[in-house]
Fold:
Amino acid sequence: MKTGKIIDIECRCGTMLFRYFKAGKGRLIKCMINRLTEDFVGLKGAATFSRPLCPGCGRELGIIMMIHGQPALKLNQGTIKSIRI
Ligand SMILES: [Zn+2]
Structure:
C-alpha cells in the first residue's frame, strides 16, 4: 500500500514554493519533480544541475539532479521550511 501526504513547502522568508506529495515518513531530503502537485517556482522543466531560487528572497532552494532517471530537487535544508497539511 502506498501512503503519503501532501505537504506545503515554504521558504524561510515565508514564500510558498510548491506543494508535494511525500511518500513514507521522515524528513524531506529531496523532491521528485513529477510528484509536485503545485509548482510556484517553475521547477518543472528546470535544467539538471540548475539551482532554483526563491522568488521572494533569492536564496537557493537546492539543486536539480537526476535520481533513477527522474528529475528531483535536492533541498537546501537551510532554506526550506516544510509544513504538513
Ligand atoms: Zn525566500
Q: What stands out?
A: The chain has a mean pLDDT of 93. The pocket of zinc ion is lined by residues 11, 13, 15, 54, 56-57, 59 (CB under 6 Å). The first strand starts at residue 4 and ends at 11. The beta strands are 4-11, 16-23, 30-32, 36-39, 62-67, 70-75, 80-84.
